[in-house]
Design goal:
The complex is a heterodimer.
Chain A lengths: L1 H14 L11 H11 L4 H26 L3 H9 L5 H30 L8 H6 L1
Helix pairs in contact in A: 1-2, 1-3, 2-3, 2-5, 3-5
Chain B lengths: L1 H19 L3 E3 L2 E3 L2 H5 L18 E4 L7 E6 L4 E4 L3 H28 L3 H4 L4 H9 L2 H12 L3 H19 L8 H6 L8 H15 L5 H19 L56 E7 L10 E9 L1 E2 L4 E6 L4 E6 L8 E4 L2 E7 L5 E5 L9 E4 L2 E4 L1 E9 L2 E10 L4 E2 L12 E5 L9 H9 L4 H7 L8 E7 L4 E6 L14 E2 L18 E3 L5 E4 L21 H11 L5 H8 L5 H13 L7 H11 L11 H16 L1 H9 L7 H7 L10 H10 L17 H18 L7 H5 L1 E5 L8 E4 L15 E3 L2 E5 L5 E5 L17 H5 L4 E2 L13 E8 L1
Parallel strand pairs in B: 3-31, 5-9, 8-25, 13-22
Antiparallel strand pairs in B: 1-2, 4-5, 4-31, 6-7, 6-24, 7-27, 7-28, 9-10, 10-11, 11-12, 12-20, 13-19, 14-15, 16-17, 17-18, 20-21, 21-23, 25-26, 28-29, 29-30
Helix pairs in contact in B: 3-7, 3-9, 6-9, 11-12, 15-20, 17-21
The chains are: A mainly alpha, B alpha+beta.
Amino acid sequence: MKNTLLAALIIFVLGNLCRFGLPWWSLAPIALLVGWFFARSAWAAFFGGFLGGFLLWYATAWFADSSNGGLLSAKVGQLFMGVEALQLLLVTGGLGGLIGALGALTGRWAKEMLVAPSKKRNYLQEKRR
Amino acid sequence: MRTIKFLLALSFTTLIVWQLARPQLLGDKTIPPLGTFLNPFSGFWANAEPVEGFDEQSLSIPGLKNKVEVVYDDLLVPHIFAENQEDAARVQGYVTAQHRLWQMDMTARKASGRLSEVIGEKTLRLDRLARRKGMVLAAENDLIGWNKSPKTMALLQAYTDGVNAWVSQLSPADWPIEFKLLNYEPEPWTPLKVALVSEAMAETLCTWEDDLESTNTLALLGYETFNYLYPEWNPKQQPIIPDTGQWLDLHPLLPPPFFTDTTPSLGFIEPDAPAEKFLNDCQIVGSNNWALSGAKTKSGKPILCNDPHLNLTLPSIWFQVQIHTPEANTYGVSLPGVPGVLIGFNENIAWGLTNGSHDVSDWYKIHWANAERSKYQIDGEEKAVQFRYEEIGVKGKPAFLDTLRFTVFGPVTYDFELENPLRDCALRWIAHDVPELSTFDVFLGLNTGKDYESYKNALPGFDSPAQNFVFASSAGDIAIQSQGKYPVRGQQQGRFLQEGDRWANAWHNYIAKEQIPSMKNPSRGFVFSANQHTTPPSYPYYYLGNFEDWRSRRIHDRLEAMTNATTDSMKTMQLDNFSQRAADALPTMLRLLDRSQLDANGKQMADELAAWNFRYESNLIAPTIFEAWFDSCYTATWDEISALEKRGKSTIPTDDLLASKNQKIALLYPDAWRFIEIMQTDSASVFFDHPATPFRETARDIVLESFKLTQSYFKQNPEKRVAFGEYKGFVIKHLGQIDAFSRLGIKLGGHRTAPNAISKGGGPSWRMIVELGDVVHALGVYPGGQSGNPGSRFYDNMVDTWASGNYYDLLFLKNANEPSARILGKQVFNP
């Protein structure tokens, strides 16, 4: 559980690099790296990745939306089959979550493939012990 | 196993991300790439501007000579304070692009036939038409003309560089939302695009075109009837420049010899395709402007007003700006993409524009000399066509290649590929000509104008589209001039299609600049224009056009009666919903109406109409009823023409084909003023008769019949019997036709026959009132907002003010540090 949250937190923090000109799909490689270095299991990678990606995209969008007073989300919602701002936020968050989850899972499984025996603990875990 | 798991995850992740970066098909609609559009960093959320605060900025843009300060007021109007004109133009380009980049791109794309590059096959016909009208040629020729003035070219370049200074630093997050929706990138601005934007305006304004309709109608009805139904001069009209004997010693240039005879040699044009309006439908294009001398105003100083009526869009066609340089302090509206102020004022003068409405586009039937259409006949010889090959990019498809054929008259717009009854006709359009002088010098001259002399000296450079330039100065002068390049025509030349096999039919001469109608300080104390005839028929040149018949009379009458005018009385004039058409038609129709034939309900409806004051107020039902009755009466009277329209001449072999295709022949309907006049003076006219009935109907029968029709229409559709504002419905559409970014369902009064010329989707695009004097007091409003971003609070913030008939005081600052409670913040540009 802790590990899942840690992965989510790191994705959330690193994902903010997208503010500084990184393309939006950078979330996938960021999540991949986090999945490699921080996720202790595929489950942790997937859920941590989802949570981190979801929060990152949802919160960023929510912040923009609330300082905008919902002006634009109402119009864009109307454009997308009349959905509400909240639904737009959820879809946005969902997409971020999906990319985060898949990226982190890929990272974790890449590690399992290359670094092989998963019994081996990573640097952080060693340190914590 | 591990390898498989990894590969699965990797490929699935890649696939998802790749799909999210691609546009998707949803039914028949393409939706933007979801990841690109929805991600909160560079997707549409990045366009959600904070509704409060302002970003104070200090930045540096290349090419500046000195520091430039831009003060923004509470309407997001930039007030540019520069130490030289080039710096001002550069920064104007930058700030305009900052707020209106997508609109600029779209306008230039539409004019140059490049919409399909970003939209797809849907707009291919539009793109082909734009190119075949010669829009690009016109813009290229503009540049040739403008290049004659190195000074204005330098300003044009500075403006362009300013736009590009904004464009070049954009990251995808900063792109206007429409780029994200349509999934394409902003591109650099160029001087050619400046010309394209001004040609787009020219296209909007010189769009009146019914050569084909007139030709067909004349062929079907014959001369006598044609002249009876379609007189060119409305005797009730108040021309812009009255005859004061000033033309007695004017020696006009002679028209081409061929046009001593008015018979068009071309007969009926076989309709092998439905007639589409060649250019825009300009029903809603019109404008009012006027200036009062100090003798008529309370302050003793002139007042100038202008309200150009255009198709209303969001983002708005106008962008307000103040430009302060050592040369002048100018405020007004600009066209996004074009430097300077188009309509506005400075400390010394004010000026405004209305469309001249002259017909400056003629069609010539080309006689091909070979099947390849590479040669055509003219004066018994064969002349080679000049080809121009156009490659039109189409999104998602290979580029489309189009072949344009240019003749001595101009481009051949339609052919068997692009069908229209005007096929194989060449278009002679004044906008194609290389300007003699730089159009920019005209506006630069006005922007920095000091007095009547500078106004008079500035105007001759303006060729097209002909405009009525109204003028007033703090010194107390008022003036008006109908400036443009007008061909010297034979009687009725240009009214009908012309033979393109003889050079004699071409335009050979243009009205000399000093013979162009103008007027300064008339004794009546006012000058005005509302797209009506420039002059009475005593002006020695023949001209034709789509001249207005109603607003001009009303405005004339009110200005004549006006004394002690203030900005408030000017407001009531701009907002005047009184329709001269209703005032002419309704009493006549009521007089002809036989009340004894009406039931109680009908009598009540007639009483309701009789009590109406001819004002199209949004909360009145009477104008709704009148509108329906008048239309019905008009339609019932001209049933002969609509029958012809459907069937064509009975001898035409394509008759059945036409009927089966439900195609109509392009015909001309009489003007409303002539219709009313015939009701008044010739109520037994044969046109009131329905040929199908055994009776001989008169105007009285038609009026009664249409009244009863109207009555039963409202009985059957009680939901239509509503106040006029609701009946009409009013929309301001987004430029890309996106409803979510439009303002729909606004309830408004006004009518195109009233000074407040509001019609569905069109109307006063900028209401301006300027009271000159030691301190200039100016008011203005347009139905939009300064920002082009639908996510900005400044996107449509002025719409409601405009709709409710209110104005803003225009903040006319003297310097960048003048204190005002209305200042939002500042942008500082450093070299």
